[in-house]
Design goal:
Protein name: YicC family protein
GO molecular function: hydrolase activity; RNA endonuclease activity
InterPro entries: YicC-like_C (IPR013551), YicC-like_N (IPR013527), YicC/YloC-like (IPR005229)
Structural class: alpha+beta
Pfam family, one: YicC-like_C
Largest sheet: 4 strands, mixed
Order of helices and strands: EEEHEHHHHHHH
Organism: Methylomonas lenta
Strand content: 5-15%
Length: about 290
């Protein structure tokens, strides 16, 4: 089963007076690149989050965002009295030294960092909840990747079938190409030479046939097609392997074009390269 690298998944879970939210986004990337965004209160789980993501998503640029919000009705404030006392003492001392001190409101005091104190949440319980949430969200993302991967596999198999048809057409076309070339050369020699040396002519035709022979290229294309179809059924990530196979197939198609001796073989080479490029673009998104 192949998986796409493009997917999105989200989820949330409740703990005490908090709702914890998780969002996962992934796009294609040559390697595995995991970035984690989370508030300071959840910073202690970053290492576990990275490890969990890397264990399930082998390739792609993955962005994980963890956040939390207080549930409605739980917006009570707790004042950190020690910080408040220190702040008021410092403020009074500063005002003594000012010529024209300006007053401030209680809201101004509440805005000062550390004055408001959030209720402590058990970190062990919080870590378990986040792990459970992340696992659920990762499973959703894997399902999305698998669904899109199945569609990509269908497209690739369709292209492989068309490439195989073109290879078969080229194989059947080559004897006719060589025969046409032989007839054309003999006719041309007869026009130019009164008594041609047909033995020498046959030797030259053999050399030309060897230069135009594309049997090896067509055989390798068939082998690469079989390998692509085999790889599509593998459980492990195959994106890089398929990308390499596309490079090899494109090289064979280019060689086929350079050895082309007539218009139809040139067109087959062009059609092959178009199909291979279409496959390569899709493979860029496979894990």
């Amino acid at each position: 089963m192949i998986r796409s690298m493009t997917a999105f998944a989200d989820g949330e879970i409740n703990l005490d007076n908090l709702t914890i939210l998780c969002e996962l986004r992934s796009v294609n990337h040559r390697y595995s690149d995991v970035s984690v965004k989370l508030p300071e209160r959840l910073r202690f789980v970053e290492s576990d989050v990275r490890h969990l993501i890397a264990g399930k998503l082998k390739r792609g640029k993955i962005e994980c965002t963890l956040s939390y919000k207080k549930q409605p009705g739980s917006q009570s404030l707790t004042i950190h009295t020690e910080t408040l006392e220190k702040l008021l003492t410092a403020t009074a001392e500063i005002e003594k030294r000012m010529n024209n001190p300006q007053g401030f409101s209680a809201l101004d005091v509440l805005m000062f960092p550390g004055v408001q104190q959030e209720a402590e949440t058990d970190k062990e319980q919080l870590q378990k909840k986040i792990t459970h949430l992340l696992n659920d969200t990762l499973n959703k993302m894997l399902d999305t990747r698998a669904r899109e991967g199945a569609q990509l596999a269908s497209l690739l198999m369709d292209r492989c079938e068309k490439i195989a048809q073109l290879v078969q057409l080229a194989n059947s076309r080559m004897p006719e190409v060589l025969n046409n070339l032989r007839t054309k050369l003999i006719s041309r020699v007869n026009e130019l030479v009164a008594e041609p040396n047909f033995d020498r002519l046959e030797q030259e035709l053999v050399l030309i046939a060897q230069k135009l022979d594309v049997t090896e290229e067509l055989d390798r294309l068939q082998t690469h097609i079989a390998e692509v179809l085999r790889a599509l059924n593998q459980p492990e990530p195959i994106g890089r392997r398929l990308d390499f196979l596309m490079q090899e197939m494109n090289r064979e198609a280019n060689t086929l074009g350079s050895k082309s001796a007539d218009r139809e073989m040139t067109q087959i080479s062009i059609d092959l390269k178009v199909l291979i490029e279409q496959m390569r673009e899709q493979i860029q998104n496979i894990e």
